[in-house]
Amino acid sequence: MAENKIQKEADRFKVKTQLRSYIGAIFLMAITAIGPGFLMQTTVFTQKSGASFGFVILASVVIDIIVQINVWRIIVASGKRGQEIGNAVLPGLGYFISVLIIIGGLCFNIGNVAGAALGLNVLFGLSIKPAAVICGIIALSIFCFKQIGEIMDKFVSTFGIVRILLAVFVAVAALPPVQEAVVKTFVPDTIDIMALITLIGGSVGGYITFTGGHRLLDSGIKGIKFIPQATRSAVSGILITGVMRIILFLGALGVIAHGYAIDPANPAASVFQSAAGDIGYKLFGIVIWSAGTTSVIGCAYTSVSFLKSFSNKIDAYYSKIIIAFIIFSTFVFVLIGQPVKVLIIVGTINGFILPLALASILIGAYNKKIVGEYKHPVWMTVTGILVVIVMGYMSVHTFITQFLS
């Protein structure tokens, strides 16, 4: 009897731990994606496209779900990280992808530091550069504790929920033209390819592609039996980002529809302030600070995880390398400044990495040395290939038109 009771307690603890890991992975991926660039991009592109931006959001959510269910399932089934799958598909490919993701993650993290600094600037009137240093110190302090995973999950999920609730308040206060938004979401006047690339790059591009999957592996969740839970978790994470994007879109659309001006120096702040006055402006400070800080944490955690493919010794110094990554990102931002410009550009950069990373994962799904007996659904492969082709084409098209013309 005593042994059965102990076993039941052990099983309950295991289930509880796994559930916490799934929730942690969902929020780490989702809330990392809902960073300061996310806030700026949504406002800037809503101002540009109006209600038709709803179509871009819908398209990006569909593509994001396709990307994440493919990646999470294959990573969990194989028990291998994204770069390890890449190296197994083609020797050296994983290293190449790792370099791209680490560079992209560094660029993204500079933008995250910028967003967090803007938050402190709004809340306390601090100058941007000193604020960036403070935000960097807060983020790296998470990695000074032994229970990194548990503390990180709680920090990210708590501030993620707070951020969503505050955004809902502002969206309601803005009194957006919901009917027009719904119509134009399905019948847009225009489709902004640059906006679509940027949104996808900012929500599932670069390091974010692998954030949730790598978090599950670090929690010991791997193997075919965990595939259903991994799939549900991936979809849940994307739906969270989609809901937040819609909330911000409606808030920005409401402000624009009522004739308020959007400040190009801080577009997202304009939305919050126009919708809810000075209180809204301070709420924006809380939202973008938490967005920046949680994204700094998630970005550093995932980007550095790609260094593990270069040396087995990385594990021994994992926390210290993450801290160094955050310090370097903060230092670079302090040197270059221009937070809003950085936040818009970094999403586009990550959009270029996605087609290559996803293609390597899809090829790996059909290598038994990688996934064993796992059978990847044909419809997931087909839709994944379509995303690779479409994103590859749009990335090249955007690069030519935006940077070479």
TrEMBL record:
Membrane topology field: Multi-pass membrane protein
Subcellular location(s) of the protein: Membrane
Keyword field contains Lyase: no
Keywords: Membrane, Transmembrane, Transmembrane helix
One Pfam match: Nramp
Top-rank taxon, per record: Bacteria
Gene Ontology terms: biological process: iron ion transmembrane transport
Matching InterPro entries: NRAMP_fam (IPR001046)
Molecular function per GO: cadmium ion transmembrane transporter activity; manganese ion transmembrane transporter activity
NADP among keywords: no
Assigned GO CC terms: plasma membrane
Spans traversing the lipid bilayer: 21-39, 51-76, 88-111, 123-143, 155-175, 195-217, 238-261, 281-304, 316-336, 342-366, 378-400
Protein name per UniProt: Mn2+/Fe2+ NRAMP family transporter
Natural source organism: Pectinatus cerevisiiphilus
